[in-house]
Amino acid sequence: MSETLANRASPDAAKQLDIFRRMLRIERNDDATRSQIRRGRITAPYYSARGQEVIPSTISSLLTNDDKICTIYRGIHDMVAKDMPLRPLWAEIMGRVDGTCKGKGGPMHLTHPETGVMVTTGIVGSSMPIANGFGWASLLDGTKEVTIAYFGDGASNIGAFHEALNLASVWKLPVIFVCQNNGFAEHTRYENGTSVDFIAKRAIGYGMPGYTVDGNDPFDMYAHAHAAIERARAGEGPTLLECKTFRFMGHVFGDADGYMTKEEKEEAMAKDPLPAFRQKLIDTGIATEEQLADLQAKIEAEVQDAIDFGQASEAPSIDELRRDVFAEEIPA
Amino acid sequence: MNTDTLNKEAGEMVKMTGQQAVSAALFEAMENDPKVLVFGEDVADREGGGVMGTTRGLSAKFGDLRVRSTPIAEQSIIGAAIGAAMAGYKPVAEIMLMNFTTVAMDMIYNHAAKLRFMSGGQSQVPMVIRTLTGAGFQTAGQHADHLEGWFCHTAGIKVVAPATPADYKGLLLSAIQDPDPVLFIETGKTLFAPGEVSVDQGAIPLGKARVAQEGKDITLVTYSSMTLVCLQAAAELAEAGISAEVIDLRTVSPWDKDAVLASVEKTGRAVVVHEALRSFGPGAEIAATIQEELFGKLKAPVRRLGAPYCAVPFAKALENAYLVQPADVVASAKELCSRG
Q: Does A85 touch chain B (CB under 8 A)?
């Protein structure tokens, strides 16, 4: 690890409930996605983030719609956490015209500027250099907006990471680099592809604070995300957060997970943050069983409504091939 | 900026180089639109205002936040341009030399060019990438390539390649205000050649070619530095009694098919000339289109002239042979005119 946080902010009851709501929305949405893939209603590759819910849920609880995120192909949890509406999300991943990108981007390129989902990239590492541009715009605009660049542990080994952190530090950009370290770069184990034991150490080389955080613990995440976001809003520059977590569903849906042991996976899944946090909310009297069951029912209804909306939507017109290449439509 | 222009009458012509024209366009664009940003390696005055001095004076006038020198990190330059453009700014990013775009190709190809389409029109990336290139200065294999074919083969980015000072100014003004990403190619040979520019030279629309010289026997289709070569060839051809029309595309993609086809329909013969490799170069697209559209009306096959299939060489003798020379254009045109 690199640094220890001096002042640890703690989420109050309302924040804790808000974080849990976002986590549950991610998990229910992910569960429904996998179910729809099994039924053949989604034919695209799916990179589940089951197990990583705490990271974007906690961060998003500290953001507004004006704050922006740039994320990656394993990023639907980041968008759901940012309160992107589910109807245009589902229509998009089903390739329908009512999708947020009119069916032209799909799950790896979901975009929803109204909720700050600016860029979703399918290229490892590429969320970071672009996030800097949004950060620069915030400085020029004189706002306190921040931009979150989400990426995985594998992306900390690509050049874009190093170029982006350097520029963000030199220009003191309000960007938070959030590495969701799930232990595997596709199939390659962390230590077989990464030169340091903690990615947060790399922050030292770029003159910014770097923290290794328990990405499954909403309280540890909150303290660090709060510090990073406040630092960015105060104009003091970027932070690197390495959030340790685990992906329960492998690299891509259908992954046989042959590159890890059964025991290792079971052990990680036993630390599932979702039921643990749920129980904590009940134990500490922040929510009752009934309240949480009610919340779950509402979320499930929202997800089902979005699935139905996507199913009912049409395929995009062939004319879309000539639209949005440039601002001006290409003549037939 | 060339302050002499301030005391001139509207419409009056002044002599300036392409570089002065680029500088004038940047000053004007930044003055008229607070959203215009300029950044890249060494562009601010602290670093000399660009290695060629093209951006000199901009940071003094418009401030260090709008005119920023960057690390030598092209991927982060283009990435920052994309984000700023999506956030409502109009960044003019300088990639010092065209070969250096190769280390930012992911940002240009996968992101700048495609984000509008992939987002179903929600994302706009109105940015300009200014870049310098061209053989003839003994900079060898990694500092002089004409890679425009790569970008023409990328749906979603426009490719502009001026040949005259007036076009440098007018096309750059258009590129900056264009709602889509534009690659703006500058060359050593065209940037420092003086020309006449109206003191109130305004924006010149992208995608429209220019008839650099009218003629009736053969059409020379070209752009960028090779426009100068073709004009010289046309002068030599005139002495031999051949009237050559020179079409300067100005925008390589999307290119002005109507202008090219109208000219070739008139002359019945065409040579496409560019500095880029002949193999799989933009000339192949243009020649194929001419033959598809005007097959029955051609008096001779369409010829393409470009660089041979090798890296840009160092030795002067090799470099001269690598570049299309006026004599090559003359020979090709004469051969075609001997037919039909």
A: no
| Residue keyed to tokens 């509402």 | A298
Determine contact: A137 vs chain B, CB below 8 A: yes
Q: A23-41, pLDDT tens digit by residue? A: 999 999 999 999 999 999 9
- Restricting to A residues 308-327, those with a Cβ less than 8 Å away from any Cβ of B are 320, 323-327
Interchain CB contact of B258 with A (< 8 Å): no
- Tell me if A2 is assigned to some domain: no
Regarding whether B218 and B156 lie in a shared domain, the answer is no
Q: Which residue of A has its CA nearest to B70?
A: A167
Q: What confidence score (pLDDT) does residue A4 get?
A: 86
A158 contacts chain B (CB < 8 A): no
Question: CB of A225 within 8 Å of any CB in chain B?
Answer: no
pLDDT tens for each residue of A151-161: 999 999 999 99
Say which CATH number the domain at B251 has.
Answer: 3.40.50.920
The pLDDT of residue B262: 98
Q: Does the beta carbon of B84 lie under 8 angstroms from any beta carbon of chain A?
A: yes
Contact yes or no for B120 and A101 at CB 8 A: yes
Judge whether A144 is closer than 8 Å to chain B, CB to CB.
no
Helix axes A159-170, B74-86, angle to 10 degrees: 70
**Rounded Cα–Cα distance for residues B313 and B133 (Å):** 14
CA-CA distances (angstroms) from residue B127 to A179, B37, B194?
29, 9, 27
Cβ B35 vs Cβ B65: under 8 Å: no
Indicate the residue of B70, B81, B123 with minimum beta-carbon distance to A111: B123
Sign of the torsion angle spanned by Cα atoms A27, A30, A34, A40: positive
Q: Which domain holds residue B331?
A: 210-337
Q: B84–A327: do the CB atoms touch at under 8 Å? A: no
Q: What is the 3-state secondary structure (H, E, C) of B276-333?
A: EECCCCHHHHHHHHHHHHHHHHCCCCCEEEEECCCCCCCCHHHHHHHCCCHHHHHHHH
Helix (H, G, I), strand (E, B) or coil at A119: strand
Q: Which of B84, B122, B156 is facing A133, going by the closest CB pair?
A: B84
The ipTM (two decimal places) reads 0.96
In a domain, B194, yes or no: yes
Q: How confident is the model at residue B1 (pLDDT cuts 50, 70, 90)?
A: very low
Asked if B122's CB is within 8 angstroms of A111's CB, the reply is yes
A1-15, A48-62, A180-194: the lowest-pLDDT one: A1-15
Min Cα separation A106/chain B (Å): 8
Tell me which chain A residues have a C-beta less than 8 angstroms from the C-beta of B80: 129-130, 132-133, 136, 167
Residue range of the domain that includes A163? 13-312
Averaged pLDDT, B175-187: 98
Find the CATH number of the domain harbouring B162: 3.40.50.970
In a domain, A93, yes or no: yes
Number of domains in chain B: 2
Structure token digits, residue B168: 């440098």
CA distance B156 to chain A (A): 5
Q: How far apart are CA B77 and CA A95, in angstroms?
A: 33
The 10s digit of each residue's pLDDT in B272-313 is: 999 999 999 999 999 999 999 999 999 999 999 999 999 999
Is the domain of B175 the same as that of B255?
Answer: no
Determine the distance in angstroms separating the CA of A36 from the nearest CA of chain B, rounded to an integer: 23
Token digits of residue A101: 């990108």
